[in-house]
UniProtKB/TrEMBL annotation:
This is Phosphopantothenoylcysteine decarboxylase/phosphopantothenate--cysteine ligase. GO terms for molecular function: phosphopantothenate--cysteine ligase activity; phosphopantothenoylcysteine decarboxylase activity. Keywords: Ligase, Lyase. InterPro entries: CoaB-like_sf, DNA/pantothenate-metab_flavo_C. The lineage of its organism: Bacteria, Pseudomonadati, Bacteroidota, Cytophagia, Cytophagales. SUPFAM superfamilies: CoaB-like (SSF102645). One of its GO terms (biological process) is coenzyme A biosynthetic process. Residues 2-209 form the DNA/pantothenate metabolism flavoprotein C-terminal domain. Its EC number is 4.1.1.36, 6.3.2.5. It comes from Hymenobacter luteus. It holds the Pfam family DFP. Coiled coil: none annotated.
Length: 216
């Protein structure tokens, strides 16, 4: 079984010393890589910049990227051969329209940046998904959580979406714990307790493997 995982943030350069990015430690994606590998899968982890070391499990190959465009190129090259896609990365939604060749010097009291939308990696690959492939997405929401997560499931052709609510204490990017709800394309909803991210990864992997045994 081959698993493709995106993880961590992306950094979109503004000039040689600055970038736009998201808060993301990469812990959830790395924990998923470890858990899939422990279950015997061959894992390809495409990681944005994180402070985590490459996972040491021999079943995991880690490829480092910086930008959303690089993450997409790496994922696109591997997607067709993978049985499972897991989009755990916190991809920057926009990138600077122009990257300055030299450091932008401080001038004036305000600075306006022009940003352009990044490619949606999950949605773009979702259009190429074959019936036997299984796609997992994440949704971090602060309001109308389930509705937003379900619209992402449809828009990005996910089979399963992992919903994190920032309203749940102890959940999200600032914590080592997470409280998730799994929403599936067939309408199934599973609510989990607050737990360490390693155990959350096990819950997600168990659910994916259980579904895959019935899939297509
Ligand atoms: N995603 C992606 N490429 C992007 C943006 C998001 O692959 N350019 C993936 C994320 O890895 C995640 C899912 O899509 O699995 C949802 O990400 P999210 O940021 O919640 O969705 P957006 O469509 O960007 O919507 P918004 O940020 O406006 O809520
Ligand atoms: Ca986003």
């Amino acid at each position: 079984m081959r698993v493709l995982i995106t993880a961590g943030p992306t950094y979109e350069p503004l000039d040689p010393v600055r970038f736009i990015g998201n808060h993301s430690t990469g812990k959830m994606g790395y924990a998923l890589a470890e858990t899939f590998a422990a279950a015997g899968a061959e894992v390809h982890l495409i990681s944005g910049p994180t402070s985590l070391p490459d996972p040491s499990h021999p079943g995991i190959r880690t490829q480092r990227v910086q930008t959303a465009d690089e993450m997409y190129a790496a994922a696109e090259a591997l997607a067709s051969a993978a049985d499972i896609w897991v989009f755990a990365a916190a991809v920057a939604d926009y990138k600077p329209a122009h990257v300055a060749e030299n450091k932008i010097k401080k001038a004036g009291d305000t600075l306006t940046l022009e940003l352009v939308k990044n490619i949606d990696i999950a949605a773009t690959l979702g259009k190429t998904k074959r019936p036997e492939q299984f796609s997992v997405g994440f949704a971090l929401e602060t309001e109308n959580e389930r509705a937003h997560a379900l619209s992402k499931l449809q828009r990005k052709n996910f089979d399963l979406v992992v919903l994190n609510s920032l309203r749940d204490a102890g959940a999200g990017f600032r914590h080592d714990t997470n409280k998730i709800t799994l929403l599936e394309a067939d309408g199934r909803v599973t609510i989990f307790e607050l737990k360490p991210k390693s155990e959350v990864a096990r819950d997600i992997v168990h659910t994916v493997l259980a579904r895959l045994s019935h899939h297509a």
